[in-house]
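Researcher: Structure for this, please.
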Amino acid sequence: MVERMSINEIEILNGYLYLHPKAQKEARDYLRYLLCKQYQREVKLTVFSSKLLHNLFQSLLFIVKKEDFDIEMVGRRVAEMKDVYYGLFEQVHQKYSEFVCELDSNEIVREFGRNAFENVGQAIRGGNLMVTRLEIIDFYQDYCKLGQKKDLRQIVAV
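Model: Predicted structure, C-alpha cell format:
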C-alpha cells in the first residue's frame, strides 16, 4: 500500500503523527466534517443532474401530455425512475459510508424523492388522469428547481 501513496498523502500522515492526541482527534473530526459536506454536495449533484433521470422525465412528460394516456405505462415508468433515483443516491452514499462511520443520509434528497414518488403513486392508484398529470408535472418542476440551485452545480474537492 505504501507504494501507491503520493507525496501529499505521506506528508499528511507524517504531520498527523506529530500532532498531540487531542489535535489528532480534532483533525479526524475536521476530516469527517469535510467529507460530510462533500458527500451532501455530491449526492445532490448526482441525483439532480442525472441525464438518465432527466430523459426518463422527458419521456414521462411526453406520455402524460397526451389526452388519454395509459396509466399502467406511467406506473411502470415511475417505478423505473424510482429505481434510478434511489440507485444514484445509494451509489454515492455507499462510496462515502466506507470512509465515514455513521454517515447521515442526505435528508433533502431522500425526503424529496419519498414525498414526490408517494404523491405520484397515490395519483396513479387513484386512476385520475388529470391528477396524475399534475403530480408528474409538479414533481418535474421541483426536480428542476433543486437541480438549478447554485450550490448543487459546484463540485467541491478536498
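Researcher: Any notable elements?
Model: Residues 151-158 have pLDDT under 50 and may be disordered. Residues 40-153 form one domain.
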